[in-house]
Amino acid sequence: MRALGLQALAADGPLLSPVAAGVWRLDEWGFDDAALAAWVEHAIVLGITTFDHADLYGGFRCEALFGRWLKANPSRRDAIQLVSKCGIKPPDAARGWRVKHYDTTAAHITASVHNSLQHLGSDYLDLLLIHRPDPLLEPDEVAETFARLRDAGKVRHFGVSNFSPSQYALLASRTHLVTNQVEASLLHTVPLFDGSFDQCLQLGVRPMLWSPLAGGRLFDAAANPALAAGLQHLATELEVSTAAVALAWLLRHPCRPLPIIGSRKLAALDDAAAACLVQLDRQQWFTLLQLARGQEVA
C-alpha cells in the first residue's frame, strides 16, 4: 500500500497524517522495546505518522513509554508529529488532588508541557489541546500561555478537545485554534448535528475524532445486528474490512475529520490506512446512517 501523505489540519495549522495512532492504552499493551518499535515503525511505513497522547494517559505513564522509542531513535522525530492534551486532574492523594477536576491555569498548562516533552524525549509538541472544557477557564490567560509556549518553541499549534461550539468560539476569539477533538462514530453521531462539524467547516479547521469505532461496539452483531450486517455487506462489496468502511464513513464528511485509531494490532493500522482510499457514495453513506440511527432521515 502506498504511504499516506500529510494534510493541513487548518490554515496555518500543522501537517498531520489523515488518520492518527492513539496511545491512550499503551500501558496496557505489554509492549517491550522491540514490540513498541515494530508498532511505531509499521504506522510510519503506512503514512500514519501522527501520534495522539495526553499527559494523564495510563496514569501519566504512556508518554514516557512512547518516549522509550523516541529517545532510542531521536533521528525519527522529524518523521512523526506529536499531539498531547492537558487539563484533567484525576483524584491522586500523592499529588494533593482530592477530587477530579480541570486545571487550565498558566502554571498547570506550562508544567504539563514541560513534563510531556521530558517524558516523550522531544523539544517540542506539534499540537497541544486543552483536554476538556473547564468552567473556570480564563480565555485570556490560556491565550497568553499559548503565546509564551509558541514563542519559546515548546508548542507549535494549539487546539481543544470535547468543546462545544460556543466554548470553542469563546477561546478561538482570543487565540488561534486548529482543531476540536471530539467523539464521533456511527454510534455517536452527535457532532454531525450539534453544530460541531458545522463550525469546523465554517472556520476551515478539521476535527480530530476519538473512539471512531466506538470501542468495537459497531461490529457487535448481537447488539447492532442491522448495522453490523450493513457494514459487512459494504466491506464485501468494496473488498475492505468492516473497520475500514466505518472509518471511511467518517472520512466522507466534508469537514474532513481526522480519526484516531487506538489499537495495539498492526491490522488495525492497516485498516485505518485502507479507509483513506475508500470513497463511499451518498446512498452508501446514508444507508449506514439509517442503520446506525434505526430510522431514515426525515
Automatic annotation (TrEMBL):
GO molecular function: oxidoreductase activity
Ranges for domain NADP-dependent oxidoreductase: 20-288
EC assignment: 1.-.-.-
Keywords tagged on the record: Oxidoreductase
Pfam families: Aldo_ket_red (PF00248)
Top-level taxon: Bacteria
Classification via PANTHER family: NADH-SPECIFIC METHYLGLYOXAL REDUCTASE-RELATED, OXIDOREDUCTASE YDHF
Protein name in the entry: Aldo/keto reductase family oxidoreductase
Source taxonomy: Bacteria, Pseudomonadati, Pseudomonadota, Betaproteobacteria, Neisseriales
